[in-house]
Amino acid sequence: MKAAQLVDRRERVLLVGVSLRNSPRSQAGQIPDATSIVNRDSLDELQELAESAGANVVGKTLQVRKALDPASLVGRGKLEEIRADVHARHVPLVVVDHDLTPVQLRNIEKDLGCRVIDRTQLILDIFAMHARTREGQLQVELAQLNYLLPRLAGRGEALSRLGGGIGTRGPGEQKLETDRRRIRERVRKIREAIETVRRQRTTRRRARQAIPLGMVALVGYTNAGKSTLFNALTGAATLTSSKMFATLDPTIRAIRLPSKRRVLLSDTVGFLRDLPPGLIAAFRATLEEVQEAALILHVTDISNPHHAEQDIEVLKILRDLGVEDRPCIHVFNKLDRLKLEESGQLGNGDGNAPDKVFISGLTGAGLNELLARIDSAMPVDPLVRLKLRMPIADGEHLSIVQGRGRILQSQLEDSHLLLDAELPQSAARRLWEFVLD
């Protein structure tokens, strides 16, 4: 008896990208210009996003044109080509790698005869999949409602019931309500709930600040390996996945540095090129952890051939958050994915820069060096070096030196210990009576 063949039950999706022509070389039949190449990279990224949402991408098409068509984005001729492709491949969903106006969305859906979503709606769908906490769910719902509100007119059939496919996940019946007044009321309530969450976060943050523990925030492009690095440094077991935006809800854990100082490490949502401004605004409470950080670890997937472009996008968002001048260590992750000769070259030049470190969160390579760099760069509760003369019988204060600092040298003198030690400033304040001039 033959083994039953596996059936791919994922939703079949066709991807559509548009590139604006900026060079005569991009004419038909000639070498495409740099813009179209960049958009092909963007289309590859869109495929990763679609697959993260559970799609089976069966085809991709990229159009190069002088200007975007205000009615259909791609123009009548290209729509006919896409419609033929949709029917031939039996595709129920088309994802466009561009933000669509309500008019463009309605026209394209009417012409193709299938569901159409744009890049923003796809990202919102992935966020809806991965939101686990109440805070994350509220933030996703707010972003979805703000996105859908101007797109309600003319989509009664599409919004009449909950769907089961990509781009239909979300908050539920309120998302489908065509009464703008009720949707605005729901938006107001969500904003109030998120503001409550923000105040609670502020209260917890102030409680943390009462104890001199600095915050270190992991930031980076989505799928750069931040959660794997977070787990490696903290021993936590947060979700790690190759899917984009696997981490949505922030996680905070304490870690101990080589100096025995304790700091808090925060794992945050990944960034993406052209991340919708409304989404950034909705996740303000989450991104406040980045704004409050004393030190930022910018994590880059060094094995990604486009990591330089991704870094530029991350820096843009950091600039929007007002933290571009914050102390930062650039962490080049996924060293284990490089060939031996490629990784060997990293030790020359940039590999020794004080603001750069090369690591593998998966294998643990370079983590000790990273912790040492964090220790030296951390501005909160700085280390001080003291010479102390302490009674051997004073176990309470000796335990402070041993538990929170490093003893560099020790010498026994009568019933006292002469110590050369390095401690956090907060601990050193409790030992001033034993300090030698």
Q: Looking across the biggest beta sheet, what order are the strands in?
A: 6-7-5-8-9-10
Q: Per DSSP, what share of the residues sits in E-state strands of 2 or more residues? A: 15-25%
Q: Can you tell me the overall shape?
A: elongated
* CATH architectural category of the largest domain: 3-Layer(aba) Sandwich
Low-confidence stretches: 1-5, 23-37, 156-162, 172-177
- How many domains in all? 4
Number of helix segments? 15
Structural class: alpha/beta
Gyration radius (Cα, Å) is 27 Å
Using the coordinates above, name the CATH class of the largest domain.
Alpha Beta
Percent in helix: 25-40%
Q: Number of DSSP strands?
A: 13
Oligomer: single chain
Cα(first) to Cα(last) distance is 89 Å
Helix and strand run? EHEHEHEHHHHEHEEHHEHEHEHEHEEH
Sheet bearing the most strands, described?
Answer: 6 strands, mixed
Mean pLDDT: 79
Descriptive notes:
There is one protein chain. The chain is of the alpha/beta class. Helix content is 40%, strand content 20%. It has helices at residues 34-52, 76-89, 102-112, 119-130, 134-148, 173-176, 180-210, 226-234, 277-282, 284-291, 307-320, 340-344, 367-377, 395-404, 425-428, and strands at residues 11-20, 55-65, 93-96, 115-118, 215-220, 251-256, 262-267, 295-301, 328-333, 356-358, 383-391, 406-413, 416-424. Strands 6-7-5-8-9-10 form a six-stranded mixed sheet, sandwiched between helices. The protein has a four-stranded parallel sheet with strand order 2-1-3-4, sandwiched between helices. Strands 11-13-12 form a three-stranded antiparallel sheet. It starts with 10 loop residues before the first strand and ends in a 9-residue tail after the last helix. Mean pLDDT is 79; it is low at 1-5, 23-37, 156-162 and 172-177.
